[in-house]
Amino acid sequence: MILSLQVSTTSQLAYPSHLTSPSHPSLPLAAQTQQVILRSALKTYAHASATQQYRHFTAIVSALDNYIPYLVALSSGLDGKTVNGEEVDVVLRQEIECEWNSVLAATNAVAWPRKGGRGKKGRVKLKGVDAEVVMVLTTLATLHRLLAREQLRGIFTAGNAFPEPDARTNAIAGATRALLTANGIHMYLTKSCASLSPTGAAGERIEMHPPELSAGAQNGLAELSMAEATLLAVLKDDPYPAVVMQTRDQNDKEWMVKAPEIPKVRAHLFARLCIAAGEHAGRAEALLSSSHLGGDTMKVDEDIVDYSRNLRRTARAKAGRFFGIDKELGGETGTAIAWLRGAKRELEFGTAGSQDGKGWARKWGKVKKGLEEKMEDRKIEKGGEWGTDAGRIEEGRVVEMLEKKWVKMNDRINIQSIPPFESLLASMPSGREIHSSPTYVAQELETDVLERLRAPPDAENARALAKDDDSSEDEAQVDGLPGTFPSGVASGSAGNEYY
Questions:
Q1: Could you tell me which residue, 371 or 298, shows the higher pLDDT?
Q2: How far is 499 from 485, CA to CA, in rounded Å?
Q3: Is 0.85 surpassed by the pTM of this model?
Q4: CB of 470 within 8 A of CB of 11?
């Protein structure tokens, strides 16, 4: 239940051609060197298979951490600010134009044709060092989000329903730290984008800019990561999803020895945490909607907005389930069943006591739901983009398991009346926060590094960087037929070279 985003790729920037530093002459060239290293790491990641891309996360994060201090030094020098207490003078020769893939923009907002028909998100031209800073930090936040997903992959794999308690706790704790780091970066960018003007050097207004440069989109991503981190705090002590996964695991043999043990949980506390997560997800959905980003911003991909909406539904359904567990522990089975049916309504699943879906429509709803569950299971097993429903299907399984068990108990033993769930949903209390947004501070260059940058630039290194261009990357992004060369061009049509 962590949003999966693609990692952006970028083009090469010739900083020495656009910037000069009288106080630190080697700064533009050093920044270009770090940018080339980052670009190479991003290209390696983009060319790797989907199941092997996670192996490159650490290398990209390292390249970003090394590049950001130089980028901050250039931005501070242009704005007349000091760097680590030292004055850095940077003069703009020509407006910088950087190109990045927008991972938040809708596919039809920025796409280029590809062989095979289907469009792919292309690059957007952006002007200014500040735009480069925003895109680089957004990429860093995306990497922390993907690292959190990788930590949780073992927990959500069907064959790993019950990992060791220490391994489960460590995985959730690591994923929570990564999500909070991403939250801090997005909050930092929210303030930065608020003062970012989408205009060029001569004052001409850019027609459209990607959502990454919008304060509303960055704030929406910050709210989304906080909602996910809050739900992870509940997942750490929530035994019911693991029990459902164990009952559905064909290789599990523990049921022959004993039934799964379900310890008592702090149900009311967990319910309020889930309500807080739902509030964060609701704000994220509103902020990421195109109507809140302004007319000059590209529309956010609808899949991201749908994920935020599903996360809000899942969080409120979890809250209803925990309120039901609290009532069941107190002996009020009828009210507990009503809470479960309210949770199913939040998930937009049909309830047993409602009139929604009769005849063939109800049967087709069950078939469709079963197909969605099987598709999600296959994604997890094959290492695909699991969790795109924000945990909605998984929570539905837990609710159905508890409802079946409690209805059976109520029919045979308690025989309590089941009140309508609409009034219960309307009486939900306010949420309770468990995390606070960390403060992100962009790293600055050390004093000894600034001292070395006072030397004149290396001419040989500058010539080597100037030879690098985007031709190889542009060719690699063309899809070829299976069995052909990676560039998609047959050897017979490549030219007159003979090997």
A1: 298
A2: 15
A3: no
A4: yes
